[in-house]
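User: two proteins, same treatment. go.

Assistant:
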Amino acid sequence: MSPFPRLHRTARRPRWKPVGALLAAFVLGCAAPASALSSAPFGPTPPHNPYAGPDGTATMHGDTGSSDTTPLTGPGAGSLSSSRTALASACPTVLVGADGYPVALCTPIFGQVPTVHLLDPGNGSSLTSLKLTKGSLLGGVYAYIDHQDRLVVADGSRSLLRVGHHRNADGAWSLTVDRSQSLAAVIPEGDAVTGLAPDWRGRVWFATGGGVVGTADDTTGAVNALTLPAGERVANSISTAPEGTAVTTTHATYLLTAAGGTPEIVWRKEYDRGSARKPGLLSWGSGSTPTFFGPRTGTEYVTVVDNADTSANLEVYRSSDGSTVCSVPVLQASGGPGSENSPIGAGSSVFVAGTYGYPYPAVPEGAGPSVPAAADFAGGLTRVDVRADGTGCSLKWDSALRSAAVPKLSTADGLLHTVVRDPLVPGTRGTSILDPYRYVQIDPDSGRVTRSVKVGVGSLYDSLQMAGTITPDGAYLQGTVTGVLRITAG
């Protein structure tokens, strides 16, 4: 997650086709002039995975290393405006392939059947949609765009799908399941895939809520799996890098490889999971999708946030052997000891956004009660830097900013981008159905908001700690509980 002048990337840059401006302005706000950009770039970020789509837009967290960075520039100079595509659905995953067409994976409010939407890059409308088989709550959340612009997702039938979008002879668009591979032989009835990502051999790694980790090769049909220790659940997505696949369960973080096809554990690192699930988290344990980052290769470290009772700690491990680099208390300024979000990682820097007390309308089955039963939304945003010699970490800054989404770091414009949830009554920390929401740009050197615009008021605009995506034309797309926001400049 690193904003700034272009990074030195070792990977081939993806080719983008031009994408037109999306929706007409719906909500106008006052935007402060863009501030001067930070002087020092972050980087490198994880190397490009040849079996994934463009870096920054291929996965919910930008790339298969889950860095939550993007090489694309966000809304630039000029007044900011916001518009909303209403889909009557929560849309946690909005991705963009090399052809420039956004693909959204959404769960309708009524029926809750995961639905794929192909969005018009010119006006934001849904060009066509495709319903998938319903599964678990998290079964309609994680997906990725592959190197052929297909959405790769596991549905409720325990099948791995590659969904392509195609223009028909009459000019209309359609979404079709181009390939399907059953995972039922290794996933028990009642279990479901929660996270998936490709490795550097083209195999799809997946992890289920019940702790099954496997690989699927749809060219050979081979499916292999390993079951993690009993009682360990996977409540977030997984990450891949040349070193292997990182999986964080409700008890520990793992690095796995599969030279022969079957997953094998390279290392396992327990963390402090606390005594119960906290309000604002969706499981009893870390809320992190593990993040690969590092100052040399972009993947020499793996990081998560733990679930310790009285604080939240950033845990940084070496990818090679799982040894601890540091354990640093974060989110101290907000007093909210918890994060459901994947950390941003770029170069030597990590950014953590707090979700303690966030009012999710539902939690996954089996998540258990939170302790306490409820709390005010604390928020918080912290930057931690790994020391140059790799012997520890230093707290750079800590703020009480209340991000209502997973922030993204642009390595092109040098800014953090997110949506914040402001209290209805200034100076308080409670939440209501009438809270206002703002898109903000943040200076990563100071943590200071440099520019913002109101995107709406009320629960229609709740971004529910979902990840935003910057498109090739500089728009910021943000899923909400009812559709997709688009923030543009100019």
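Protein 2:
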Amino acid sequence: MPDIFETIMHRCSIRRFEPKQIEETALQQILQAGLYAPCAGGRQGVIFAVCQDKEVNERLGKIKRANSNPRMATATSFVSRERPSIADDPKLTNAFYDAPTVITLFAPKNFLFSVDDCAVAAENMMLAADALGIGSCYIGQGWPAFADPYGQEILRQWNIPADHYAVMQLLLGYAKEGDKHPTPKPRKEGRVIRMGGAAK
């Protein structure tokens, strides 16, 4: 297992995946990392719905894509030139980028910290995935994937409580063979503000 700081600095979002499924042992470790993430009040309200059904993932990914604005990017405002997102490229029709494993994180609709709880759980899982040699990508605004009758039927099949909603999706899979791991960009200066206690 690599050093935690090495993992933090190495991890990046992967949007091009091999069709090969990740190993069950690795999946369980990644889920464990999510289950042990901080949560407001110790409530443990996040539900992790793991889907490895290619047909379901593709259909939900296309529903989500259809409910997204296909022209969000501009010449000066975009997510990534190296690894275009659906915000950048209207030709991308699957919001899940054909990832073999998609984990949707559901949380209570009327809880103040639902998004926060899901975000920290996702970060734990992304770091665990990177340490295990598995690529990941955080996909925000999870609910549009279920915004049609098919999506609603999937929610019923998964027994998602009516008082929960899809906050986000986490994509997992192996980076496409021969696809270069992105080099971390230099960190921008001036992002840390420090008051008192300066090192001597």
